[in-house]
Write a structure and sequence with these properties.
Layout: E1 14-17, H1 27-42, E2 46-51, H2 63-73, E3 83-84, H3 89-101, E4 105-108, H4 112-116, E5 140-143, E6 150-155, E7 159-164, H5 165-168, E8 173-175, H6 183-193, E9 198-202, H7 209-218, E10 225-229, H8 254-264, H9 278-288, H10 301-304
Parallel strand pairs: 1-2, 2-3, 9-10
Antiparallel strand pairs: 4-5, 5-8, 6-7
This protein binds glutamic acid (GLU).
Length: about 325
């Protein structure tokens, strides 16, 4: 007996795919699943699935299980048990409390219309108490973003990114006025708690990354590496998830969608022409995957920073 405590080595590479169960798996999310899986396997790493079911108003009943079943049909199975955010409220509560105790977060009664004059960017409270006549169960909680707070990071696919979070986003929401956790808080807590080393996801989330890095710093958590994949666009240039009906995925016939995702990742279609099963396809894909061929997402951060905060009160 050495008397040493068992050491738990941090994984060298651990990626994840984190769908929200707001509908069935579509071609855009398959691209993110496949891309994150390929990069994990390329690095000899682990790949986890996390269900981000923190927004009951937007959740579609049964969608989480259908997404997991579809992922399995496409050959993607989490290396560790699937985590569901709806069962992790205690972790988010503890993180929020730490921020409140350290005065890094504050309770806020401002409504969307209160902030309209400032373009939705919160820099100081303009509402001083609960709104009269409103049955809002609680106030929102926001992260205090210091004047001039800017974040720079190197995206593995898009290169150097920079966002002035104070000016472009402002004090952002951690817990919504309706009591639900904001995506930004939950994702940061979970990526750290699950010891994710590499976040690989669609470029629609690129403009959330600086907020997540600021939050990691406020909570003294490590910052993972980031890579944002190109988005699938439909014939009208719209993000595919908005028009997914045009591209339904058929888990009973997985090869065509996997081949399409492979091509969208800039990989050579010939590699997968002769394969006949999902297992063969994923093996061939893993063996010939070349990350240098992934096309860059069209809009960089500068073009995206004015998107409204999806978690705004
Ligand atoms: N749950 C988010 C979504 O489905 C993705 C979160 C992430 O990958 O960070 O859009």
């Amino acid at each position: 007996m050495s008397g040493h405590l068992p050491t738990t080595d941090a994984p060298a590479y651990r990626g994840r795919f984190a769908p929200s169960p707001t509908g069935d798996l579509h071609a855009g999310s398959l691209l993110a699943a496949f891309g994150s899986w390929l990069l994990a396997r390329r690095h000899g790493g682990e790949w986890l699935v996390r269900i981000e079911d923190l927004d009951p108003p937007r959740e579609v009943p049964g969608a989480a299980q259908r997404q997991l079943d579809a992922l399995t049909a496409f050959g993607f199975v989490s290396d560790l048990p699937v985590v569901r955010q709806s069962q992790r409220h205690g972790l988010y509560e503890a993180a929020l409390q730490r921020l409140l105790d350290q005065d890094k977060a504050f309770v806020c009664h401002c409504s969307r219309s209160d902030l309209a004059a400032a373009g939705g960017v919160h820099r100081r409270c303009v509402a001083h108490g609960p709104r009269a006549g409103h049955a809002a169960p609680q106030a929102a909680v926001r992260l205090r973003v210091a004047d001039g707070a800017a974040v720079e990071f190197d995206d593995a696919l898009l290169g150097r990114q920079r966002q002035d979070v104070a000016r472009e986003v402002g004090d952002f929401v951690l817990r919504r006025a309706d009591g639900h956790w904001a995506y930004q808080l939950a994702v940061v807590v979970d990526d750290a708690e699950q010891r994710i080393t590499d976040v690989v996801r669609g470029a629609d989330l690129l403009d959330s990354t600086p907020r997540q890095i600021l939050l990691q710093r406020a909570l003294d958590l490590p910052t993972p590496r980031y890579a944002h994949l190109p988005l699938l666009l439909d014939a009208h240039g719209r993000k595919l998830s908005k028009s997914e009906a045009a591209h339904p995925l058929n888990p009973a016939d997985p090869l065509p969608a996997l081949r399409a995702a492979w091509a969208a990742l800039g990989q050579t279609p010939d590699t997968l022409v002769a394969v006949e099963t999902v297992t063969q396809l994923l093996r061939a894909a893993r063996d010939s995957f070349n990350p240098a061929q992934i096309p860059q997402a069209a809009p960089g951060l500068a073009a995206m920073h004015n998107d409204p905060d999806p978690n705004a009160v």
